[in-house]
Amino acid sequence: MKLRKLGFFLMLVAVLITSLATGCQSQSEKIVVATDATWPPMEYVDENKAIVGFDIDFMNAVAKEAGLEVEFKNVAWDGIFAGLAAGEYDAIISSVTITDERKEKYDFSEPYINAGQIVVVAADSDITGPETLGGRTVGAQISTTGAFEIQKMSDVTLKEYDEVGLAFEDLVAGRIDAVVCDTPVAADFALQREEYKAKLKIVGDSFTDEWYGMLVQKGNSELLEKINRGLKAVQDKGIDKELEEKWLR
């Protein structure tokens, strides 16, 4: 009788240990991913207050393939990198262009989409591309690749904005002459939005070759390996092309 009780007790302990181990493993597989949800169609807040967009669907697909669970956190662009460095979240996906400067501070995933800078102007503008921006005032979101590219241009005045939508508002109102931004963002404002598509046009071709990547803290090789494994699976299965068709075409 005592042996039976002892056997039952040991079995119960084993079940509890297994349950705790499983629970800890499940918890460790959940990651918090920051995004600045102000860049439709890549990441934005919809009418139901949900964070949606290409990057959100893409990150979820990558996570599924990598065996991860994602919780998204909406973080303003001007603090998003500092928050990653401080460990407030595990990763970032937010239309972040891979640059040498950023690679010194953070670890990037493999590239997942090319989104070069392009020029958007009023429908009646005589601007035909980046080469005709001389003497003009051009808007871009602060600390973005678009702002950096405008700073390189001679005789062009840069006006920076906390959100890219504010730049487009000024463009439509005639307060600036053009906006420089990532191609997906330009497509959303100039081609898809009812309030803008008759008033704006995209001119010229994208004039930079830029790749977006996901970021983790410097040295977090374990998470980066999982993300890259999921990313490769998404690309191999053509899921990335399906999402491009859904959000960017």
Description of the molecule:
The chain is α/β, with parallel strands linked by helices. The protein is built from nine helices and 15 strands. It has helices spanning 2-28, 54-66, 77-85, 100-103, 145-152, 164-173, 183-192, 221-236, 239-248; strands at 30-35, 38-39, 43-45, 51-52, 69-74, 91-92, 106-108, 113-114, 117-122, 137-141, 157-161, 178-182, 200-203, 211-212, 215-217. The protein has a five-stranded mixed β-sheet, with helices on both faces. Strands 11-10-12-9-13 form a five-stranded mixed β-sheet, with helices on both faces. Strand 10, helix 5 and strand 11 form a beta-alpha-beta unit. Helix 2 crosses helix 8 and helix 2 (54-66) packs antiparallel against helix 9. It starts with a helix and ends with a helix.
Give the topology string: H per helix, E per strand: HEEEEHEHEHEEEEHEHEHEEEHH
Rounded Rg:
23 Å
Major β-sheet profile = 5 strands, mixed
The gross shape turns out to be globular
How large is the count of helical segments?
9
Distance between the termini: 72 Å
Class by SSE composition: alpha/beta
Helix amount:
40-55%
Number of domains: 2
Total beta strand runs: 15
CATH superfamily of the largest domain: Periplasmic binding protein-like II
CATH class of the largest domain: Alpha Beta
CATH architecture identity of the largest domain? 3-Layer(aba) Sandwich
Beta-strand percent range: 15-25%
